[in-house]
Structures are given as C-alpha cells and as structure tokens.
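Minutes, project check-in
Item: structure for the 616-residue chain
Input as provided by the requester:
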Amino acid sequence: MRDFLKMMRQYASPYKGYLFGSVILNMLSAVFNIFSFAILVPLLNILFKVDNTVYSFIPWGSPDSNFKDTLVNNFYYYVASFSSLHGPLNALLLLICFMILFTILKTSCYFGSNAVMIPISTGIVRDIRVQIYRKILQLPIGFFSEERKGDIVARISGDVSVVENSITASIAMFIKDPILIVFYFGLLLFLSPEMTAFTVVFAPTFIWIMSIIGKQLRRASAEAQVLWSDTMSQVDETLGGLRIIKAFNAEKRMNRRFESVTDKMRRKLNRVGTRQASAHPVSELLGTVMIMIVLFVGGAMIIHGKSLLGGKFMDASQFIFFMVILYSVIEPIKELSRATYGIPKGLASMERINKILEADNPIKDPEKPLHISSFKDAIRLENVEFAYDASRQILKDVNMTIPHGKMIAIVGESGAGKSTLVDLIPRFWDVTGGRITIDGIDVRDLAVKDLRELMGNVNQDPILFNDTIFNNIAFGVEGATEEQVIAAAKIANAHDFIMEKEGGYQFKIGDRGAKLSGGQRQRLSIARAILKNPPILILDEATASLDTESERLVQDALDRLMSSRTTIAIAHRLSTIKNADEIVVMQDGRIVERGRHEELIALGGYYKKLNDMQAL
C-alpha cells in the first residue's frame, strides 16, 4: 500500500481538482443512499404495522432526550401524522417518491464521481508513457546496449496497460469505497455501537486473508510481465531477421521458441488470473459468514429482549435497517478487496517501468555548463581510455589532434575501437580515463545540446523514420523551408530520385526507409547532414554497404559535404580516404600508425597490409 500511495502522490497530484470533485460527489452519493435506506423503517413500522407505538413530537434540544432518540422519534411522528391525515396509501406514495428522488440523486452523484475519474485515469497513463518516452530519449546509448528493444516496447505498452487496468482503475474504488465504509460505519455506530463493535471484530481476519493472496499475486504478476517482455523481444527479433529466418528455413525453429515462451506466459497468467478471480468468491464468503453471525446474534437478542450487555436492544424494524446498512457496507469492502488484488499486479508492472524511469543517466550537463556556438581551433584526445566495464577495456591511451578544417580518417580491423572512439566526441559515452577537448574545453564541461549542435552524423546504416522525405531531411532543423530542403537534396545527389517518387518530397519512405534503396537512404541521410550544416562531420563507414554505382553517387555527395568542414571519417574502403589530411590506424584499442596515405604505404606496416588485402 505504501508503494501505491507513493505512486498516487507522484502521478495524481496534477489532477487534485478532479480528485476533490470525486470525493465530494461520492460523499453526496453516500448520504443520499443512506436517506433512501432510512425510509424503509417507517414503511415497516407504520404502514405495515410492524410497530404499533404511538409517537408524539419531542421538541428539538429537549434535555430529556438525546439527539438520536429525538431524530428517530420525530421522523416517525411526521410520517405517522401524514398517514393519519392523508391515509396510509398516500403516505406510501410519498415515501416511494422520496425513495425515487434520493435514488436519482444518489445515482447522479455516482455517475458524476465516475465521470470525473476518467480524466485522472487517462491522464496518469498518458503521463507515464510520456515520462518513459522522454526518459528513453535522455538515457545514454549504453543503457540500450544492455536492454532488449522488445523489452523496452513491452514496458511502454504492456506494462503501462497493466497499470491502467489495475491501478488507475482502482483509484475510483479507493476514493468511493472508503467514503461509503466511513459513512455506513458511522451510521451503524449511530444505530447500535454495541452491535457495530461486535461486527468489527471480524475485520482483521478479513484483511489478513486478503493480504496473503495479494502478496502472492504481485510476485506472480511480475514474473508474467517478464515473460511478456520475452515475447515482445522475440517478435521484434523475428521482424528484424525475417529475411534470414526464411533463407535458412528456420520457421519451425522460431515457432518452437515462440510457443515455448508463450506457453510459459500462459501458465503464469493462469495462476495470476486464478488468484485474481478468487477475490470475489473469497470476499463474498467472508462477508456472508459475517452477516450470518451478526444476524444470529442480533436475532437472539431480539428474541430475548435484551442486548449482550443486558440493556435495551433495537426493535425488529431497527435491526432490519441495521442489517441493510451492514450488508451495504460489505459491498464496498468487497470492491476494495478486489482493488487490492489488482494493485499488486499493477505495482509489479510499475516496478519494471521504474527501472527505466529511475535509471541513472551519467551523460548529463554539469551543474554550471559552459556554452559553445562555434568550432575554431581543434578537437584533442588526451590519454583517452574507455571501458564498458572492468573486463572490457576498449581504448587504451589514445592521443589525437583533429585540427579545424581538416579531414582525419580512422581505419582498422573490426573491434579495434574505431566507432567507440568517435562516439566519445559527442558524448554518447564518457571517457573512463583522460579527456577530450574542443577548443581547449573539456566536452564534459559543455552543455550536451551545444556540443552535439556542432556535429553531424552519417552512419553506415542510414537511420530514417517512417515519415515523408521532406521531414526526414528537415529532421533536427526547426523551421526548415522547402527551398532549403531541396537545395540540400541537390547537393546530396538525391533530388532527381526524389522527384521520381509519387508525391516527390511528400513521399512516405516506410519503416526505416524500406521503400528506398540503400544508396537512396544514404543520400537522404547526407542531405539531412547538409541541411544542418554542422562545423564538425562524423562519417561512420558511410559507403561500406553500397554497390559501386551507389558508392560513386554517395561519395560525390560526401565530397561536397566535407568541403570546408572538419571531418572525422571511419573508413572500411581505404580508397575513400586516400586524400585525408591524416589517417589514424587502430589495432586492439590503440593507435599503431598515423600519417598520410603515401607515408603509411611507404612505412610498410599494418596499414599497408590492410591496403594490400583490399587490393586483392
């Protein structure tokens, strides 16, 4: 319950007005409901001759009678007087009209209390999803190298849906039911403190049994959500690797994997569903047992004409009214117990959501960040070291200077640390040793936004979005005009193929640019970098996966992009970086050679070996 209240304080506070409205409407609903039940007493006592007592008016505030006795007596007196003057049938009709009126008022308030809860429920779910998405955008790339993409999707979809269906759906119950319980118990105390105290003896047992089942439900729900994440992860892997699955005739194998995890999830969900389904019958049984015990004890006291303590007990009609109210209080208690069953399931999902929301983000602005708007001198890597963890040392004592306006190429075998090295400059990761400076300022002292504003990226696998060509080129540049986008596309050798598409720049390229060829996708990513016009350009094997014709077009676009710009290029094909101002050769996380193309060939070392292998 502490976790639930903490969550409510965190997410429900923006909706205090709705919560207050719900409380007021539920209180009115409870009051009108009590009035409608109270009319049953005169119906039994007077109209149907259950009680032949002759009532006379007692002045309000009379010292000879307490407020309760005065209220009950005068209520009966007014009803009896009306019955005598207008006849029992008219009195019956009047009481029925009052019951209908109070029922209309009660149901109207009940509807209103539920209606004002809808914005709270939908708002909390929206806020949680927005927070998760915002956090995903803020977290460093390293976080997602340790988490499966399908698991992230499962948390923002499945886990949030569970929170919506279990916790937010329970908020209304946690407002309405306690109010009803308080009002009904207050009335029970007003009618008979002795019988109410006897009834309350059963409450601890009731709550204890419910709490045991609730704890088991939370544990099983958490396990079920992990299996749901496994399912989503496998679906994501299947969609991404469908071509390979078909090429290797691995459909049956993938089916077996999927059926295995879904069967496990089904068995776990069966346990969760069974425990949740037990909420109603268990609470029904406990409530009925309590009612029957109270009915037996109360009936015995009426038969013997005295209470447990030997004093005067209620008459039969008052006891019936007491039992009606007692039965009424059982229903909100049962609903509350069902809500407490749903909450553990939602809290289990909230724990998984919080693993994202509460994840530490080491890549953040310093307390007083420095600001930079231009690049004038050089980027320097001084004794840079980097390790993902203690057992994975990737970069070792790297020293490098990248002067303004120069092109620096980085080459080496796969796993040498090339991509990791360039990822450190825009702070996708932070160095674990040494430092990186831009114009003499440590990048960790700069505002992250300012730092990345200086840089443009073109990757081996173009990252495009399921949107129009125009929006993909204009991505990251606020207020880009059509003329600017077209100009960038022309420089990137993309304008001609764009105009061949239906709708031109408004053509939707599909998921990750699926409707375009590899060369077309790469030219769009280059056009995007051209439009941003950054002073520093990072190329990560931008032509490695292209055919000869596409490579020629893309390389031509890159040459235009790199002119008068500081460029850091990771190259797989050495022919694309022969004209680099300096080539840095990496092996096992260290720089082993550096120089211009001709100098490295003449050196006869590792670079020449790479060059000769490609020549073959």
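Outcome recorded: The first helix runs from residue 2 to 11.
No further action items on this chain.
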